[in-house]
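User: Sequence recovery, please. Input:
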């Protein structure tokens, strides 16, 4: 959901494919469930990330299961961060970003909206007793977000492993933070975070993530026709069009050369 709205091109691959296949254009690797990582696999991942000059994003409890069983030594070795267990939250996991005008996000943000769109979305009680981590940042580490209920860092970036490593102690990041981390890694953002775009040479579809003016730029000059409202938006070929959009509305245009 958040990747779709991140404004960038992306794909799902297996860990084996990441290690074995060439990814010359990869700038960001988002590891969503790298919980069990032994010494050999950790060395492979680090070598690959250094080879690609790729930023790694680790989520929740990366490397927490290693050769010796459950513990944080593997998390520290995998991510480069000193971490510790925190007391249970007693409810939703909520965070406040230091950038993005103090964006608040987490499992309780947008629950009503998500529950309406998904077959199942967990209640706050599902997170109340779940184990969670806090980051102990070192000199030079960039602190990106904090837990809302305790004075602990929950999202940070470091370069001490020879590549850029981002540890996210919560679930998946919201689209604006995904885009912020990715752009810092060298990923090109095509769309403002929150919007969802599908397009080819003849058609353009936009699902608006927020209301207000939206600038659309085309690779070549085109005439633009609004199919929903049966009217021309640009009768002469244009390379750029500015339109006012409304949050959660879909726009469908035909593009004529």
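Assistant: Recovered sequence (257 residues):
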């Amino acid at each position: 959901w958040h990747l779709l709205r991140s404004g960038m091109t992306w794909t799902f691959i297996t860990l084996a494919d990441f290690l074995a296949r060439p990814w010359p254009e990869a700038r960001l690797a988002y590891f969503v469930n790298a919980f069990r990582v032994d010494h050999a696999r950790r060395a492979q991942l680090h070598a690959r990330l250094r080879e690609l000059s790729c930023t790694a994003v680790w989520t929740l409890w990366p490397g927490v299961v290693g050769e010796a069983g459950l513990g944080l030594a593997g998390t520290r070795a995998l991510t480069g961060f000193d971490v510790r267990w925190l007391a249970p939250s007693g409810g939703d996991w909520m965070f406040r970003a230091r950038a993005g005008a103090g964006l608040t996000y987490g499992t309780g943000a947008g629950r009503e909206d998500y529950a309406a769109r998904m077959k199942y979305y967990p209640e706050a009680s599902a997170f109340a007793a779940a184990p969670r981590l806090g980051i102990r940042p070192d000199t030079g580490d960039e602190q990106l977000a904090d837990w809302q209920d305790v004075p602990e860092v929950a999202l940070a970036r470091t370069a001490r492993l020879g590549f850029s490593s981002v540890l996210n102690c919560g679930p998946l990041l919201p689209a604006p933070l995904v885009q912020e981390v990715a752009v810092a890694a060298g990923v090109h953002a095509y769309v403002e975070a929150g919007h969802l775009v599908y397009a080819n040479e003849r058609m353009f579809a936009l699902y608006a993530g927020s209301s207000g003016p939206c600038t659309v730029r085309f690779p070549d000059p085109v005439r633009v026709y609004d199919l929903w409202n049966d009217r021309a938006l640009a009768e002469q070929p244009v390379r750029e069009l500015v339109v006012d959009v409304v949050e959660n509305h879909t726009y469908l245009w035909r593009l004529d050369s």
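The chain has five helices and 16 strands.
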